[in-house]
């Protein structure tokens, strides 16, 4: 309405719409769908915030369908993943992180129990064929994601059953075989052709696969133990950690020393230590160069195991010797009767990095009659000689592409470590398979591969005035006296616990549809459409009237609104 003046120099009533006050501002609000810390920390690439939001709406099947768009094995990863997502969870700054692994496990178990079908993408079946070598978590993930993209996938493995190290190296106390069978069985039924008892280099060559298929993914794992000695000394009865664990899982046999030292600091070392302790071995020691979790240990120097597994091992009587290595074997003839340990510390080495240094005068002796190295494995070169070229691992980029080998990809424990994508866990292998599937699809579709890259949301961007403190759920653990070699030690949440725990999510970086911006804007410059939208796009900023006061951004609980300087 135009503004006019009367004879008394007073303005007639008019509309504020005539005053477009947006020209006053120096900064404007914008929606920023940032990456939640849990998502950024997940090796598999899960967007936990997205599927937790669906649980908050009371839609567990939809939440599972969202989860498996990235990770097709949640009943497995919910049990064995070290869940770095929880360490990164912003909720931990307020009270306790969300029990993401427990909810993930529950969703996976619910899908098995209710036989929920994997969501399928639309589209025509493609003519291209892809070979996957290795039916471990990396190969299964690659096969699943390629099948989703409508490729013909053939999965090869040297063993009679799929699963790789899931089946051959993780004890049933952590991962029951019924869960492996159910989860992987359902995955294979999505249209993957599985060819067991087919070993690379024995039954089929890499050249044959490359000539028959349009692309090949190598998820062969790292199944060859590293060489181990102490100043050239090796006991005559040396048993290597992974081989010993595999033998126990296959036939139930274990050596029975009075006291044993396991030299290493990963899941294999801790799993084997617990198995040997339950077998009645009196003294089981783990000597590791890494430290135990605590204020005196740097984050990059902590023992690389699931924290709850470490706690349970200590409960069961396993003795840990952190920041130490074996300095000398004490032998009588060719038999070990003790080891000399020495303390280690990470110190700058002059190149900007830190390396472990031993300190003379810190030697101590353990009287043992067996030493088991569990210091990691490398790739078995059989069938891969011209690709490996004397290296321990396959050289790849972030998408698993092997340089100079078009159409050939790799992932899981077989690949070199990448700083942005560390390997060594089931979740990391699943992430490798997913990214490789994207790269294979890109190659065969003649485009560039794409990986989501949103900015991370810091804790300081949240408005905690809108959240109440609430305790994390407690997951049941089998009492010490009831633990054996077959019963699962840690339980999962029930339905009520899982749904309640999901409500604790801050929804970091994603709209909660709380209406704060809409109701609190002093200029009514936030508009709301009639339709709700998952990404907050039903809230619109009317920049003609927004003065840029920043109240909407300040009062947004989850950091979805950010103020940006005007050009």
TrEMBL record:
PROSITE patterns on file: 4FE4S_FER_1 (PS00198), 4FE4S_FER_2 (PS51379)
UniProt KW Glycoprotein keyword: no
Tree of life domain: Bacteria
Entry annotated with the keyword Iron-sulfur: yes
Protein name stated in the entry: NADPH-dependent glutamate synthase beta chain and related oxidoreductases
InterPro entries reported for this sequence: 4Fe4S_Fe-S-bd, 4Fe4S_Fe_S_CS, DPD_II, FAD/NAD-bd_sf, FAD/NAD-binding_dom, Helical_ferredxn
Transmembrane stretches, start-end: none
Domain spans labelled 4Fe-4S ferredoxin-type: 537-566
GO terms assigned for molecular function: iron-sulfur cluster binding; metal ion binding; oxidoreductase activity
Key words of the record: Iron, Iron-sulfur, Metal-binding
